[in-house]
Specification:
about 325 residues; mainly alpha; 15 helices; about 75% helix; about 0% strand
Length: about 325
């Protein structure tokens, strides 16, 4: 191996490149109303007053508070989280691609993540989407190992549980995929993984319920927030026009996420369609990716889709993973 092909050197280059491309363009002010809510939460946490807005994001706010104690600047504290998570996501994408298909594939995947317009954009504002992107890329790799090698069930459980403390929707959308994977493991590992998930979630959920005034109060506050979104964007309230609007937003976000890389994906899709019977490896890749992204995409199409950051998080696996068949190399 050429010394310049060492993963540590390439990872460091990706990390520095991501920081260098993002730091000069960070937002100087709180980006949106949600950013303001998060900033207020760093001073006083109150879901009832939308500091932050439900469902609460307790670990994100907790990490922001730690940084704010050092930096004394709410916007800067949250920007540090976004920038560092964005740079880490690029490195993780590279390492995932390398571990599955070799160094060249990893470099290409890392470059896609590095220059993705949407990933670049959300790493420069004070919101939770970039750290969600980082977690989902890592969890995708763990779920790959769980599905095709029956390994890392506990690690995937802990990762999902902790990621949900930063964005609770991770639990809702990725837990079904993880659960199906655990069915392929032994009873002992399945039990251990369930206990690990419960412990990881309890670590942030129990304090959150306590701060919010108990489960009933928390459910009421969260239901009001969800109801407001459903009434504005849901197919069940707005009909086909709401569905069309949500799908249109998703298509636009996909273009922003992948940019010119969409041409490569279109080529791969056409190649897969023409050689479907001969490409067992790619078939399993497609099936796994559909399991990964369809729960979230269906929810956003039927209920609500507004910030493009949603698509950044839940299509993260498409930018990083092409998977082997069970029992394959």
């Amino acid at each position: 191996m050429n010394r310049y092909d060492k993963p540590s050197i390439i990872s460091a280059c990706f990390w520095l490149a991501a920081l260098g491309l993002r730091i000069p363009f960070v937002s100087r002010y709180l980006y949106s109303w949600d950013s303001v809510n998060f900033a207020l939460a760093l001073e006083r946490y109150s879901l009832r007053e939308h500091q932050p807005h439900p469902p609460g994001y307790p670990l994100y706010v907790g990490l922001g508070r730690l940084l704010n104690a050092l930096l004394d600047d709410a916007n800067l504290s949250m920007l540090v989280i976004s920038i560092m998570a964005g740079a880490a996501a690029v490195v993780i994408v590279y390492l995932v691609g390398r571990s599955l298909f070799g160094n060249a594939a990893g470099v290409i995947a890392g470059l896609l993540a590095l220059f993705s317009p949407l990933a670049w954009y959300y790493s420069e504002v004070a919101l939770t989407y970039e750290i969600g992107f980082m977690f989902v890329v890592a969890i995708t790799w763990l779920l790959h190992r769980l599905y095709f090698e029956r390994r890392h069930a506990v690690a995937a459980a802990v990762a999902i549980g902790l990621a949900a403390g930063f964005r609770q929707d991770v639990l809702m959308f990725l837990m079904p995929v993880w659960f199906i994977g655990t069915l392929r493991t032994g009873r002992r590992e399945m039990l251990a993984s369930w206990l690990a998930l419960a412990a990881a979630v309890a670590a942030w959920l129990l304090p959150l319920l306590e701060i919010s005034g108990g489960f009933k109060a928390y459910r009421g506050i969260s239901s009001m927030q969800f109801g407001a979104g459903v009434s504005s964007f849901s197919v069940f309230e707005g009909g086909l026009s709401a569905l069309a609007a949500n799908v249109r937003w998703m298509a636009r976000a996909a273009l922003e996420l992948l940019g010119p890389a969409l041409l490569a994906l279109a080529y791969l899709a056409a190649r897969l369609a023409l050689r479907w019977r001969d490409m067992e490896r790619e078939r399993w890749a497609l099936i796994f990716l559909l399991f990964m992204i369809m729960p979230a995409l269906l929810f956003f199409a039927l209920y609500l889709f507004d910030p493009a950051g949603y698509l950044l998080i839940y299509s993260a696996s498409e930018t990083s993973v092409d998977l082997p068949t069970p029992g394959g190399p």
